[in-house]
Amino acid sequence: MYDKVYANGPTGTELADLSRNLREYSSSRGGTSLSQSIVEGKLGVDFITYLDSDDYKFQEDRWVDAFRAAAREVVTQGREISMVLTNAPYFRKSRFFPPAIVDVLGEYSPKAVITFIEEGHVAWARIRRREERHKSRSVFRLKDMFTWRSVSIMHAATIARHLRVPHYIFPVKQPASDLYRLLSEIRPMVYLSFPITHIREDERAVREINEFRAYMHRRFCSFDPLLADDRVPQHVYRRGGGRGEERGTSDLIRIEEDDKWPFPTGDDLRPLVGDHVILNTVREPVYPMEIPIDQVREVAESTDEPSEIDKNILYRDVMFVLQSDAVVAYRPYYKGMLSVGSYFEMSYAVNVAKKRVLVYWDRGEDGDPLSTPFMGFGTFFNDMDRLLEELERTEQKVPKQ
Fold first, then answer.
1. What is the 3-state secondary structure (H, E, C) of the chain?
2. Structural domain of 370
3. I need a surface site. Which of 57, 64, 172, 302 has the fewest CB within 10 A?
4. Residues 43, 62: contact at Cβ < 8 Å?
């Protein structure tokens, strides 16, 4: 069990909602007790004034005092797990602040550090909707959301490295059960690898893979690439600008909720943070959203290298593999069609990350794995129950402290 946790995530990740949903899930199970506190609630100053200040020492000192107050609050409650959450580092006037203040964080002695992430377009839409209602001068381009995420990850990774504790990247769309298991249960942590791009329009394949995803989320802490589905704006853009033309405009891309890959429903699979924005205590859906086409083009296309979206996805998925105990690949050669993403992830896991790879392969529809490029990339199973029995025996590499 990680008894103390430091967690950060860019503005838009709805940390208050996440905190409440995790606490409710834990309570419903009658399990581990939690205490949580959000640093921004302890700043003791108007937040917009704080962000706008050019007194950098004031900003740093305020944050340090707020962090210490939040840490004291959770520790004195004496719960089994305490968690301090923050949106730091902040992004204002083209700069990030405050720096990673490792000595102050070390006073709290966290046993794990977590960076919560959200799809870039959803975070962008949340901030935009808030700004329409409450003017705070928080105006960002879609590209800024990816930059902010990268800096947040670097901020947390720096802290974790200096404190010699694990660092996890965790999508807020994952079920509360995944985070609960990460924090409190000694269970293998699993990266889910499966075909995505070339079967997105195949309803049968989507249903089948969703059944696999739901099953894995119900049994393990499973890191799922589709629960941070950054490619949605790119798909809509590449198929012709989405639904903007229906509105008589060509300078906006309209994204609907059904443009994203669906996730199985069920109370036990509800995300930590849903596709909504909270305005004056009222939850409003973020879909449909309209994004200026130039902002989507900026991250979705490139002439001589991968797009900004694709580069972010590659980094994120590699980090998911590295922080997992094993990779479970589901039909990476679906009906004889090569999944380039699964191929890369399996190869990386075996040859770079040195992780165990277990592969479910339908020999009836997918053929003989030994005659494909996947030969030698893992242990193959034609029976999912046998694969799961083997996975249960996988040793957790990072013991809970």
1. CCCEEEEECCCCCCHHHHHHHHHHHHHHCCCCCEEEEEHHHHCCCCHHHHHHCCCHHHHHHHHHHHHHHHHHHHHHCCCCEEEEEECCCEEECCEEECCCCHHHHHHHCCCEEEEEECCHHHHHHHHHHHHHHCCCCCCCCHHHHHHHHHHHHHHHHHHHHHHCCCEEEEECCCEHHHHHHHHHCCCCEEEEECCCHHHCCCHHHHHHHHHHHHHHHHHCEEECHHHHCCCHHHHHHHCCCECHHHHCCCCEEEECHHHCCCCCCCHHHCECCCCEEEECCEEEECCCEEEEHHHHHHHHCCCCCCCHHHHHHHHHHHHHHHCCCEEEEECCCHHHCCCHHHHHHHHHHHHCCCCEEEEECCHHHHCCHHHCCCCCCCEEECCHHHHHHHHHCCCCCCCCC
2. 187-223+325-401
3. 57
4. yes
Helices 176-184 and 203-219 meet at what angle, rounded to 10? Answer: 30
Residue 391 lies in a domain: yes
pLDDT digits (tens, 9 = 90+) for 240-266: 754 444 443 568 999 999 999 988 777
Residue that has been written with the tokens 């959000």 in this structure:
38
Backbone angles phi, psi at 205, to 5 degrees: -65, -40
Which band of pLDDT confidence, cut at 50, 70 and 90, is reported for residue 395? Answer: low
Question: CB neighbours of 58 closer than 8 A, spacing ≥ 6?
Answer: none
Q: What is the dihedral of CA 299, 300, 305, 306, to 10 degrees?
A: 100
Overall domain count for the chain: 1
Mean pLDDT of all residues in 302-323: 92
Distance CA 83, CA 1 (A): 13
pTM: 0.92
Q: For residue range 179-223, list pLDDT tens digits in order.
A: 999 998 877 899 999 999 889 889 999 999 999 999 999 999 999
Classify residue 348: in a domain, yes or no.
yes
Q: With contact defined as beta carbons under 8 Å apart, do 360 and 384 qualify? A: yes
- Residue 372 forms part of a structural domain: yes
70 within a domain of the structure (yes/no): no
CATH code at 334?
Answer: 3.40.50
Q: Verify cis geometry, omega within 30 degrees of 0, for the bond prior to 89.
A: yes
Determine the pLDDT at residue 397: 52
Residue type, 41: G
